[in-house]
Amino acid sequence: MSKQQYFFLILILGSLSALGPFSIDMYLPGFPAIAQDLNTTAARVTLSLSSFFVGISAGQLLYGPLLDRFGRKKPLYVGLAVYVLASIGCATVHTINGLIVLRLVQAIGSCAAGVASVAMIRDLFPVKDSAKVFALIMLVIGLSPMIAPTAGSYVTAAFGWHGVFIVLAAMGLLLLVATFLWLPETYKPDTTMSLKPRPILTNFWAVLREPQFYTYTFTGAMSFCGLFAYVAGSPLVFMGIFGVDGKVYGWIFAFLSVGLIGASQVNSYLLRYYQNEQLVHTALICQVLTGLVFLVLISGGWIGLNGTIALLFIFLCCLGFSSPNTAALSLAPFSRNAGSASALMGATRMAMGALASMAVSVFSNGTTVPMVSIMAVTSVVALFLLLTGRRHITEQVEVSAEQMAEPVH
């Protein structure tokens, strides 16, 4: 493989992986405009974000078997085509209910890109090289929450919120063409692969019965709810309550993403000296304390814009340490069922995240309290699940710093 082929391959696979994150973050600055145009509230617009998380959750369970049964490219073609059509629908929709439904469809389409890109990396590269490739892909994904809302704010300012979905549709179409022209079929379809529900559910049940899996999967999912609550509530908090414009909101979102991404990189270094469990435990305690202090300060009206940004930054740093370690510990006991375990873990996170983002909308009262309350409560629950669940783990499988170099998706 030439350097040019390698570059285009990584570029396409990285773009496929980033399609979902871009679809989540790019339209956030347009929440006030969407609410105004569709004659609804910003809190109800948040449900279009929740429906996207539901679609991602379902898609993770759907595409794994399909990619094994029909090869990598055919399900990817279908997923990207669905994504493009749903994005165009989002750009032309006239009701908030229509947007909520179309975002669900858009998510199911985008999920094909994320799941297929990971599978194709496994197919194309030996284990020795795949860690380096995943590191490059994760760099692209990590940059997405920094670039997408900022880019979205400028697109919204120039062309309105409809323009964001036109841009996303164009991205999906370009990826569909690039996949057809330049991505090889990396996996021969397995006609023996059963798509019947019973064997798939039996496989998932076998994974769920592992104490280390359910302890760290549900701990990580509850901990990660704080991120979903922040993403869902931040447009209302920053643009609605503090009155910043869309462009400033995009830059604030980008700055806060540095905390999450930076902490996850520091985490890889700390694993040389500490075990995963130690880092998870410490990070969750800090997350709980930050969430509770944040809730007290915001409830008393003792904190403004700068203090809110500072505490959110600290909270996201805690997530940057807890999230990769809970993910790695969840999958560590598996060799045979790693694909099913990964899909189930991802689906659980997204499903719980969808509930957290819905709660932000349901309990919205024009203040920052609902968002921060959900962040604090879910953090407390996560710590409780960790402390109670690890009692059932007889022999914990840890993950080394070298193994963590290959990111868990």
Automatic annotation (TrEMBL):
Keyword match Membrane: yes
GO molecular function annotation: sodium:proton antiporter activity; xenobiotic transmembrane transporter activity
Keywords: Cell membrane, Membrane, Transmembrane, Transmembrane helix, Transport
Protein's UniProt keywords contain Transmembrane helix: yes
Bilayer topology: Multi-pass membrane protein
Pfam family, one: MFS_1
Listed Gene3D superfamilies: Multidrug resistance protein D (1.20.1720.10)
Residue ranges of domain Major facilitator superfamily (MFS) profile in the record: 9-391
SUPFAM superfamilies: MFS general substrate transporter (SSF103473)
GO biological process: xenobiotic detoxification by transmembrane export across the plasma membrane
UniProt signal peptide: none
Subcellular location as annotated: Cell membrane
Annotated InterPro entries: Efflux_drug-R_Bcr/CmlA, MFS, MFS_dom, MFS_trans_sf
Protein name: Drug resistance transporter, Bcr/CflA subfamily
Organism: Hymenobacter roseosalivarius DSM 11622
Source lineage: Bacteria, Pseudomonadati, Bacteroidota, Cytophagia, Cytophagales
